[in-house]
Amino acid sequence: MIVLLTHKDVLEEKSLSDFLADSDVKLRNIISECGNRYCAFNNRASEAEKEAQVQELVELIEEMVRSNGGAYFTDAIYEDTEKRLKQREEDLKKIYTDQLNNEIKLVEKEYADKSQEEREEKIKWLKMKYAEQIKNIREEAEKGLFRDGSNGIMSLLSKIWQMFW
Hints:
InterPro entries: G_AIG1, GIMA/IAN/Toc, P-loop_NTPase
Shape: elongated
Structural class: mainly alpha
Number of domains: 2
Largest sheet: 2 strands, parallel
Protein name: GTPase IMAP family member 7-like
GO molecular function, one term: GTP binding
Domain AIG1-type G: 1-82
Number of strands: 2
Keywords: Coiled coil, GTP-binding, Nucleotide-binding
């Protein structure tokens, strides 16, 4: 990640590095967690200055990609994400299996006075529903992981917002 600050123009004569050195420890920690990758944009810059700011950001991105061996994500990030996805898949499979077993028990109670054929048909339908859930488990795990990541980013941005306002 790269921290992009705006309103560089508010700093006036103070350098960005001096501002960050004097800033709240939380902001310094965030920047540190981002590999000390940061830059600031002047909102009132001329067109030439805006172009230079964009170029600075692009160079930071390119340097980050180079340091990751040409990948946008490091292997460690990919491996961690894959590990978390597999854990979420296992958790979902356990939840679905428990749900299926509980629903089968309920069907056996509810259909105790009905024909075995009706009971078996209902159980067969439950197992088909379970099979469909298992078939889509990877996609659901990815959605959950994405949702958690988005919520984490929003929480972090909210904390940053509160630090300054």
